[in-house]
Amino acid sequence: MRRWIPLLLVIALGAFLYLGLFLNPKEVPSPLVGKPAPEFTLPVVGRPGETFSPAELHGQVWLLNIWAPWCAICLKEHRVFRELIGPEVPVYGLTWKDLDREAAPLLARDGNPYVKAVDDVEGRVAIRYGVTVTPETFVIDRAGVIRMKHVGPITPQVWEQKFRPLLRELRA
Amino acid sequence: MIPELGQFATILALVVALVQGTLPLLGAQRGEQRLMALGRPLAQAQFTLLLVAFAALAWSFLAHDFSVKNVAQNSFSQLPAVYRFTATWGSHEGSLLLWTLILAGWSAAVAVFSRQLPPEMVARVLGVLGLVSVGFLVLLVFTSNPFERLFPIPLDGRDLNPLLQDAGMISHPPLLYMGYVGFSVAFAFAIAALLSGRLDAAWARWSRPWTTIAWTFLTLGIGLGSWWAYRELGWGGWWFWDPTENASLMPWLAGTALIHALAATEKRGVFSNWSVLLAIATFSLSLLGTFLVRSGVLSSVHAFAVDPLRGLTILAFLGIVVGGSMVLYALRAPRMVTGGSFGVFSRESLLLGNNVFLVAALGAVLLGTLYPLFVDALGLGKISVGPQYFNAVFVPLVAPALFLVGIGPLARWKQADLPDLMSRLKWAFGVALVSAALLPLTMDGINLQVTLGLFLALWILFTVLQGFALRTQHYQGSRVRRLFGLPRAFWGMQFAHLGLAVMVVGVTMVSNYETERDVRMPIGSHVELAGYRFVFQGVEEVPGPNYLAGRGTMEITPPRGRPFTLYPEKRHYNASGMIMTQAAVDYGLFRDVYISLGDPLEDGAWTARVYHKPFVGWLWLGAVMLAIGGGLAATDRRYRVVIRRRKATPAAATVPAATVPEVAT
Amino acid sequence: MRSWIPLLLVFAFLVPATLPASQPALPNADDPVLEARLNTLAADLRCVVCQNETLAESRASLALDLREEIREMMRAGLSDTAVVESLVDRYGDFVLYRPPLKPLTYALWGGPAAFLFIGFALAAAALYRRRAIPGTEDISPDTLAQASRLLQHPDSIPSGSVTEPTSPSPPQDTR
Questions:
Q1: Which of A2, A4, A17, A32 to mutate to test the interface with B (most CBs of B within 10 A)?
Q2: ipTM of the complex
């Protein structure tokens, strides 16, 4: 029996390697899910003098989307926000590290998909949200608690499968 | 046309490998000489075909044939010729072709240098190697075709990853693969032994030189990789416990254990089951490394592009090879204890101890490398296992093994005399311990890490010298003459063990006494470090073949000796737009001076990091000594005599017993 | 006036060569003590975007931001543990290169010791078996090998032709 032990070890290892093929080591779950959304107050892009902070949205379900003007996928995602998501739920933008100050003219030109986009030029608030790559989207509930984090662009399919059911539940 | 020729040769090689993997094995099973004899010519034919395929790919790179996808993705019109050639193995597909070519090369070498082996053994070994080759050729032909064409043909390529544009890239991958793949020979011998049911001293003797040579290549490959990272990654680190590095360290540890276990199996017929298991494990770990690097299962700084289907194919292949051999092992490994008896304190038991520590260290590296995967696969979250973990668990496992290095070679086979050995070694032990405790005081006070490292290094040094003294005291003639009369295997062992001591000194000194300054340097300003004075003379633009470099000039006045100048660079690569830090290093036997340029500030000032790295070169010096030791041991007279004898009398198929000298290794 | 210029130039080149260069370079960090603390801490943290680099080594832009964030927390008087905790709160255990000891990592930290223990147990068993073989003292390995060969394949190999007798110990090792 003893000489079968190496085979058993190999099979166990192989099973893990097989499972590993279907996992993405770069996708890191956020520990922020289930915790209150970090508070901040930042100026609103394109509206000098105006600021925004998440506390204003208490009692509402809303999305916070971290984006950057230099991120091409984010700009593609904007169309989905404008056409599909915006009408269903308020989307707020966190503009990450817009060092070249391109965000305001860009939003004015292409149409602003956000209710409000705030300007996080130093990227410090984004870090408090645990940003790794843009775009990232958080779903925040009526109590101001983060319920989901999605890394990468939201496609209509992702919206249908991941977001809609959750939003229905949160609003019920 | 040329790429198609390459592809055709690859497909033909697959056919040849299929035949090589079946008929000779069948012949050995049925005792049919004609089928068995097919192995040798087929192995050589396969090697020739793959050589043609490889040459075709290299030609496509050298001739800028951007209609080949592989070339378009990994080359560039401005890329210098030498890197165009090395780009042949810069991609997943190309490196797989190199791997397969080297495998065929080893098979051909076995075919040529195995005249003294019984034909059944040769047939089985070549058959197993053919089967392994089939696996790789299937990958090459069906999932990773390096000759795939591209349409429309791009005007220019995307350039080779700038990290790979370094002298290290020329020799690191081929050497590493020579090592990885070389273990396939040890594997094939083990499988052949299991198939024939002959797990004896003769088997160990045959596979031992092959194992040692593969281990030598792997040692050089890992050493070069480490040196490459040191020069190329810009902050002078030399080992990062990255999954890819661990993937090469694991077969090295297993191979080191195997070399020692085989010594006992060859000399005393003991541990034969264990040696077989280790031979299988060593090659399996080489394959596991390939899988880990190519499947994207673990994130690594130098992983190839990810493709789940490719990962699945490699895993299936890995499963067949490893699973199949384990089943064979379970069914065919002898059920009785082989070899003679030995005492609790003997060369055998010490080699066993060495194996326990090495395999435990191997287990620790495997566990740490795969633990994030285990946790993730079980849905328990994501964690990271980094250098701190590996350093914490690896050192305590390797330090005792290094201590045994001092005792093992002096202990007798079968039954060693412990009190005698203790009285012999008490001076070595005492002097090493006292010097190691005192030496840190000359630097900056008590440092237990340094004491441990220096103690082990000195202990190995003294015991190695004692080994030479013992081996020369009983013979006639002058001592020097006797010294050079000692067998190469003995010299090899001593050299390799000394290499370990040298390496330990390097690791200990550089990790404890390295100093660095991170400074903003206006033009003409200076910084002092470890008695060296660095004066910054500004950065000028210097165009390279396929990049634009900002080249800094740093004038350095050492505490003693002549001033010198170093030119660290910041390069911007034209095709990829990547910015690379090219560190400048002044190499020395006792220290390296290492400068890496940071970012530009105002008025021509730059940030820069200057490092003083004491004894860092000893790391690679030690690796070279290990390799020299391996080379000496593998070419010992008892292996060469056998070959020469066979050439003289090619009729018999046995090992001539009387001519083989007795060697203690 | 103009004729002085070459002479001045000569002096300009002579001065650095004869006197020590003008000013010492300033540390890159404004507060070297804090920077040292940061570097020690950052060596144990993973740069989350670059995947396999520590926060101390990485030059990725997010890594630079994270280092600045840590500096600020340190300036605000947070202890090292508090800094690490706040990073774990945002990025999870993934940022820790030294995995914390908790039930999830017991096997990781205990594994190596367990391997060593199992290894020694097996080795001890092997030693015990060796000593318990009665009368094997003088049977040479090849005899045993032949025996085992014959047990499994009585007809496969012509006996006595393959191995050479191996003397049990090298004669020159001891006095």
A1: A17
A2: 0.85
